Amino acid sequence: MTRKQFLLGAAAAAAPLAPRSLGAARRPNIIWIMADDLGYGDLGCYGQTKIRTHNIDRLRTEGLKFTNAYAGCTVCAPSRSVLMTGFHGGHTTVRSNGGGVPLRPADVTVASLLKNAGYATGIFGKWGLGDTGTGSEPNDKGFDEFVGFLHQAHAHFHFPRFIYHNRDEYWLTGNGGGRRRVYANDVIAQRALDFIRRKRGGPFLCYMPFTVPHWEPDAPDDSLAEYRGKFPLGEEFKPANGRLRRQPDVRAAHAAMVTRLDGYVGEVLALLKELSLERDTLVIFTSDNGSALQGSDPFFEGSGSLRGFKTNLYEGGIRVPMIARWPGRIAPNSTSDFAWSFTDFLATACDLAGLRPPAKGDGVSVLPTLLGRKQKPLQQLYWELPRHVAQTGEFRKELPTQAIRMGPWKAIRPKPDAPLELYNLATDPKESQDLARTEPQTLARLEAALTAARTEPATQTQPAHPWWEARD
Question: Is residue 133 located within the same domain as residue 229?
Answer without folding.
Answer: yes
